[in-house]
Q: What sequence folds into this?
């Protein structure tokens, strides 16, 4: 398994392929402290207006802030709006 | 974003609130099933979100699975709005009635306007159109506008053309009146006579017999083209009837034609070397009053002329706005005192003054639309060398013939 991951990483680098597709990693786009896009997520673990925990491959992405709203949510993509303070990875 | 919101509004969506521990699980399940959730927000313990009205039905089994409490908070959008309207039958009935009333009432003629009347009384035309079937309250489609306008011309003798146009509930009758004299009247006989003095340049006869010829001098009132045509003896080819009446050798017609003539206009002017001129002394008085309609209200100053010689200037200030006439205006008066002052002119100046005066007098007599063909002036000799006299002559070429019935 470890060897496979490594091989994929080398493959992505040599052929300049986007890593999030080959390695199944989340792609996080953050605009200021107001908008947050997470692509390639695995679902919502916890949602309150202060904290949102999003399950991603190999761990969790924790968004902390205030007045957090999930504007849109699709099976691959999630769009959060609000005042974002912190962004943590728990792997 | 707003266009998307409009789309959501047209499709209709439901605002739901979810309560319970499995809220996140419900959201995840919904995503996996392809149920589109929007604007998820926390409100105390509840999670509020928007979901399409169709997709809400598919959410139901998931709710049971996750043991959440789901409540519909609000139904938003056009489909729900229309549904609510259909429940209010009285409103729908009123609306349909309104549309029908608007439609039926607009298919009648409610106003008849007469346009283009000058000499004819519009009421007379209105009465005629009423008799022909065009009157307020008549059904629009039942009118044959061409027939009515044709009949209207026949019914009112002084109309030469009539056109009816319907715009909305307003029928506009456009009328063109007959111009007197242009209509053909076989009984009408006339001569063409001179309007003013002049020398004939050209006679062009359309009908009738020319009495004058080129080079003739005529004075006002002379007959130029006669409507009475008399045949000379022998000119009548049919000589088989020698006992022909004299009347038979005469023909009465309506004379027509143009007579171009050279016409003079004279003006006289004179000037002395010593003239009196009115010059302002520098004193003046001002005043002002307010005019409302016919009424005049004194504001301040003097309104009557306080001097022996004076010039009066009026300045009116109106309060018109665009095309709206406001019948209120402020009138300011200014009386400037004048005094007579003797001035000595050079002979050239005096001559020029006399000439200008004569020119002005001559020019005033020329009818508008005619420009002088030739103009010249002569200095008239006077016994007094202090006085200069000028005669100014302007020559024009114009049609001096006017029609005169007999």
A:
């Amino acid at each position: 398994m470890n060897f496979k991951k490594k091989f994929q990483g080398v493959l992505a680098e040599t052929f300049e392929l986007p890593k999030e597709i080959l390695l199944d990693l989340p792609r996080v786009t953050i605009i200021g402290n107001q908008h947050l896009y997470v692509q390639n997520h695995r679902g919502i673990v916890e949602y309150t207006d202060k904290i949102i925990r999003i399950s991603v491959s190999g761990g969790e992405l924790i968004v902390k802030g205030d007045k957090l709203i999930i504007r849109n949510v699709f099976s691959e993509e999630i769009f959060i709006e609000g005042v974002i303070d912190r962004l943590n990875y728990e792997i | 974003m707003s266009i998307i919101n409009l789309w959501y509004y047209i499709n209709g969506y439901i605002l739901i609130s979810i309560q319970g521990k499995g809220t996140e699980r419900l959201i995840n399940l919904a995503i996996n099933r392809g149920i589109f959730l929007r604007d998820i927000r926390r409100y105390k313990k509840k999670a509020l979100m928007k979901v399409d009205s169709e997709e809400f039905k598919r959410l139901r089994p998931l709710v049971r699975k996750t043991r959440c409490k789901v409540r519909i908070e609000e139904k938003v959008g056009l489909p729900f709005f229309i549904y609510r309207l259909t429940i209010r039958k009285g409103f729908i009935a009123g609306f349909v009635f309104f549309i029908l009333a608007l439609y039926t009432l607009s298919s009648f003629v409610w106003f008849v306007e007469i346009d283009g009347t000058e000499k004819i009384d519009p009421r007379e035309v209105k009465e005629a159109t009423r008799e022909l079937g065009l009157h307020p309250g008549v059904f629009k489609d039942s009118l044959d506008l061409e027939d009515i306008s044709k009949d209207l011309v026949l019914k009112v003798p002084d109309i030469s053309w009539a056109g009816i146009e319907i715009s909305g509930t307003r029928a506009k009758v456009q009328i063109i009146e007959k111009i007197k004299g242009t209509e053909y009247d076989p009984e009408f006989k006339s001569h063409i006579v001179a309007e003013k003095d002049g020398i004939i340049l050209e006679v062009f006869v359309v009908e009738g017999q020319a009495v004058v010829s080129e080079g003739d001098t005529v004075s006002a009132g002379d007959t130029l083209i006669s409507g009475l045509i008399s045949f000379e003896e022998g000119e009548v080819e049919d000589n088989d009837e020698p006992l022909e009446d004299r009347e038979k050798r005469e023909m009465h017609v309506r004379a027509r034609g143009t007579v171009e003539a050279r016409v003079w206009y004279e003006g006289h002017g004179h000037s002395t070397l010593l003239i009196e001129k009115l010059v302002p002394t520098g004193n003046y008085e001002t005043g002002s009053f307010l005019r409302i309609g016919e009424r005049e209200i004194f504001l301040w100053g003097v309104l009557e002329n306080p001097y022996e010689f004076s010039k009066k200037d009026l300045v009116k200030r109106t309060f018109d706005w665009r095309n709206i006439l406001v019948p209120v205006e402020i009138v300011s008066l200014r009386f400037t005192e004048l005094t007579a002052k003797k001035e000595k002119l050079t002979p050239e100046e005096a001559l020029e003054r006399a000439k200008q005066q004569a020119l002005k007098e001559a020019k005033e007599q020329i009818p508008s639309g005619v420009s002088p063909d030739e103009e010249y002036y002569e200095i008239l000799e006077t016994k007094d060398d202090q006085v200069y006299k000028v005669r100014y002559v302007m020559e024009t070429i114009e049609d001096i013939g006017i029609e005169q019935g007999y």
Observations:
- Chain A has one domain: 23-90.
